[in-house]
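Q: what does this look like with adenosine-5'-triphosphate bound?
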Amino acid sequence: MQDVTAGPFTPGTVCALLGPNGSGKSTLMRAMAGLVPSSACVTLNGAELSRMSLQDRTARCLYLPQALPAAVHLPVLEALIAARHTAHAGRLAPASGTPQEETIQAALDSLTLFGIPHLAMQAMDELSGGQRQLVGLAQALSRKPQGLLLDEPLSALDLHHQFAVMDILRRETTAHQLVTVLVLHDLNIALNRADTVAVLHAGQIIASGPPASVLTPDLLREVYRVQARVEESADGRKFVSVDGIV
Ligand SMILES: Nc1ncnc2c1ncn2[C@@H]1O[C@H](COP(=O)(O)OP(=O)(O)OP(=O)(O)O)[C@@H](O)[C@H]1O
């Protein structure tokens, strides 16, 4: 990938990273997370992540990959508690003095936030794809990061859960002033649920800003090679209507 200037991403807002297959979205996310070699300077709330150890970096800025790691035969609740301990093992929060009940409650709260407390005792390797994605998100938020990098966090979710998760992410992002960047393919969700969008095309961010100003028919033609209209419903919701491919 060529040099890319991404951001600044504003605390308290959700930015959707968009672009066609192979445009560099995952590569950019992985570079921001420090998982691919990069000379980029990445800062979060004034701290230079690129100068930190991967452990300190991960404690501040959590990256959820597109393909989740192989699930282990461990109850969901235990997996969440283990994730919190991993975060506390960094230098941000002391592990000692944290009562066990508090840790368990935080993990349960996180599952409840995503509407899946009933999965607490189910084994990770017995979850459906969508359930695993929800648990992954609950695990990410239970670690109390300042930044969230989510690569296609809605890819395995049904329509209800796609919107529910976006609403949760928006609420948590506002409440905790998180910097949230997520890769999306659904332009209608980006139009109606993201605060800003950034569009990658052939390894470069070619447009960024409020979704409705960025996602114009001209941009959709150039980037996605579709002939499309951006229409507005009676109640003000925007949607992309595709007439054909070009
Ligand atoms: N480890 C790697 N080594 C070499 N090339 C890679 C590597 N990872 C990705 N690429 C290439 O970089 C380009 C961008 O890939 P990337 O996964 O970032 O795209 P993407 O925008 O996330 O695509 P998609 O929407 O299909 O997930 C692709 O051409 C891909 O083949």
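The two ends are 26 Å apart (CA to CA). Residues 13-215 form a domain with the Rossmann fold fold (CATH 3.40.50.300).
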